[in-house]
Amino acid sequence: MKEGYYLKEVIEKGEAVNAIREYESSFLVRILSKEKKHLSSMELAYLPFWCYEYELTSATLTDAIIGKVAIEPITKTSAILPVDYPLYPVETDMNLFPLCGEPDEEATKEAIYWEAFQKEKKRKSISITFNSSFVMYLPFWIGYLKGNNVGILPVDAITGKVDLKLKDAFLKIIDES
Known about the structure:
Layout: E1 5-6, H1 13-24, H2 27-32, E2 38-58, E3 65-71, E4 78-81, E5 88-89, H3 105-117, E6 126-146, E7 150-156, H4 164-176
Parallel strand pairs: 1-6
Antiparallel strand pairs: 1-5, 2-3, 2-6, 3-4, 6-7
């Protein structure tokens, strides 16, 4: 699937390499890991999310909240985006991972509820309307690690953080390809 939009990476490759080295040298990883791994290569890849434009209304809000929420279909990881966050049309030469999974409006509503729940105590006073949905690709630097076994570590190319939760999504897609 080549249609949809993507977010541009903010973090450069060198910053992602540093994030992986910092993660791998952390106290907890050194204690729990039985083998020493080294970074053998890294590539920029785009993980597909279902993105929904939504409108949230509530008894306690004077104006509706309009926004975008993206849900990764395998792990149900969500990303709440400002309504005006820049999206770019997918280009043909991008390293796009294939889309696995169907849209899940219930998981999407749950993500929005938790975001709104901080201000709103009663869920039943919250109403969510979806205006549209589309595929959106989020950028990640994928670090390939070698030791006794080969492993991967994804680094969010927008925040610069190692994202262990999405590692399962990448591994499942790689395994099914």
